[in-house]
Amino acid sequence: MLKQGSVDREIKSVESEFDMSKQSDSARMQQLLGSLAKNGAPMAKFMWGNVDSLKDTPASIGVDLYKQLKEFHSRYYSAHLMTLVVQAKECLDTLESWAKEIFSSVPNNGLPQPEFTHILNCFDTAVFPKLYQVVPVKNVHRVEVTWHLPCQKHLYSCKPLHYVGWLVGHEGKGSILSYLRARLWALSICAGNSESGWEHNDTGALFSINISLTDEGLLHVYEVLTVMFDYLRMLREAGPVQAVYDEIKIIEDNEFRWKEQVDPSDYVEHLAETMQKYKPADFLRGDTFMRPFDSEVHSAISMVLNALTPGKCNIAVLSRTFDDGSTEFKEELWYKTKYTAHDLPQDYMSRWLDPQLSVDRSELYLPLCNDYIASDFHLIEPDALYNREPKLVRNTDRSRLWYKQDKKFLVPKSYIFLDIVSPVVSASAKSQAMFDLFIDALTHNLQEVAYNAYVAQLEYEFKVTANGMIIKLSGFSHKLAKLFETIVDHISNFDLSSDVFHALKEQLKKNYFNRFIKCEKLANDVRLMLLEHKLWTKVHKHSFLDKFTCADFLAFVSEFKAMYFMEGYIYGNYTLKEALDIEKYVRCRLSSDVLPLSMLPVERVSQLPARDGVVRVKSFHEGDSNSCVVNYYQVGPSNVRGAVTNQLLNMMMEEPCFDALRTREQLGYSVFSSCKTTYGILAIAILVETQASKFSVKKVDEKIEAFLVEFREKLEGCSQEDFDGQRKSLISIKQCDDSHMGEEADRLWAEIVDKTYLFDRLDKEVDELEKLKLDDVRRWFLDALDKNDSRPRKKLSVQVVGYGDNETNSVIESEPFSTLSQSNAVDLSLCQRSSLDCTGLDNKSQDVNRSISPAKPSCDFQHLEVEHNDHGDILAITDLSQYRCSLPLYPVSKLL
Hints:
By secondary structure, the protein is α+β, with helices and mostly antiparallel strands. The chain has 28 helices and 24 strands. Strand 4 (about 200) and strand 5 (about 205-215) form a beta hairpin.
């Protein structure tokens, strides 16, 4: 333990993790905010670490890092500072004996527990209460307002931060967000404290309000802040409201009362943490426990509300538009985040502090009574016909419905799944972009009316698929159907104003951009595009967002609603009649033409050629050193036996792959192998994220191939005993019961949406695993991954190249497809001079350049040179669309 070589390797891993975190705006903002704290405050430290902070700097001042680590371990690795949770099916006496046997040797040095309560007012500095203009990595406009409050840990039964965050972050009528959305200034809001060690500890607690702005909202950022501060003033004037507190308490009590089992490893980790935070009586319920409303609750909430005033906060406005080349920025020490600091504008400060100069209060008020809170928790009578596996209870030329009662978990909850497919969705990259926008617009339209359902533990989500969308709802049965009908009504009556259309389209552009600047996301996007014959990357879809109007978009949505087929699954605490009524509601509200079988979309996968293909493209994030290599080894169509063979091979590869490529070769922090199943086509993939300042993608690919040679030898020398151990481990995993209702619901729904309907798949997989031989796995490896002239494999290596000294590839071909519109600089000093009146929709600031004119840097795929190996059998792919078109397609495949 703590060997010198292990320490050195771990420092390199920390360095790689730090390099990856440079693309996280939340990590960058945390470090920038920490730099504003007092010297010596814990939050002022460098939280990530890198080679400079952990090795070079300590060495330069004579600090022995290895000695420091051993002293740290001796001081803090002590039993009296630890909490332990053990969960198993054995009796308590057995668990106790195990705990004593395994953990009694943990040393106890008896030293006092570290205290930080003496460190107060960590952010009471001259640089904290200012306005910062920050250049983020992502293409976002956001304002973040942060206060530092006294420690709140002892008030967990009152939850004052939760109460205030609940109201400030509310999205229903009368909320801050409702006001801002009506003016197209903001799209989302988040408020509160994350309960992380950085945001809440013995030195104090942070309370933050984060508002995602539109382009128009950035121009009116001071008016946005005025609305926020006025809402906080309204809350102070109203004081703590018992009706609001009681409603939050009911929801939290319902969550705890009907909490289902979760993954055991997650649960014991969570409990070990709560044992450090709460009194013993509240170890299990501390996160949700709220005492009845009383004077202590009133005092705690009042204390927080009175602290959230304009003069005590830090305001950070994030936008890439600030980096226009004309501003002289400061840089944060570790992440080099660009920023400028300004005093808070006095004319607005006066307004924020003057109760006579407020916005129109008729649009700001406390949330109305939440009619989505469940109160009926009765369980339906069991029906033996419908509680074993899903039954097909409706099958027509327009829809199919599967149904299953829950008699295992016995909770008053249900799940509703709906898969809606239409041939219009996958027609082109343009139609896929329009469908993405439809999902965003539908979510936007539902946001205000469905928010109450969300806070009442009714969840809904929309997942875009290759041919349509999946709607998933879950929660208490009593109110779930009401939410489902609300969603269906919004689809049926879908409409969108031109202003909202343009605002959402601009936001979707940002979302696309923020995805494909991440090397791992881009690599997987490219891989899936080449495999799925109707899929396009975010880069391709981005290019079409300016190629359709609002009228075109609404016509597309109408066409989608008129030409679809749906398949659903209802599981849980609903009767058969209730399930059929839910399905009938969809058919009545979303009337459509009968879709001929020939028009039903099918998913087919490209058959890779039996050779090594390489796609090597430059990262879209200029200056980012992160690179990614995904080597995909295609097997082809198979069956249940083939699927478990692939899974077992990957299970045997995972640890050696990590050990060789991450621990030993130190290629990067994120290294793993995985099974891939793409519409019934099997494969193995190995992913490595590295930095171009350390390794070229060519070198990473060579190291992956060297590992495969090494693993082949390891597999050849594998003993029967080791193989049986791995196989039994996989069998044990598959024989584990579903731990909660959602796990079973998702597992069975996967069979329905994949059109396999093999509801006893796990049993069949166990049967096949018990028959599987070591030689079967060896042959599978040789056929799929081994490089051999007599057995050519189907390999696709997708390589996204970062910027660094180890990458000198020149662009050999540009694949023109799109241009990326980004905003020019927005001067907040101009925004500040805009009208102070933000009470009406017609507020137009004449002295602000309202049109943010687009700049159009290239956003084409930049294909880089691929070196041929000695055999000359590498295929360099320099046109994604053309290459995909050249590939044959596998027949429709199912793992049966």
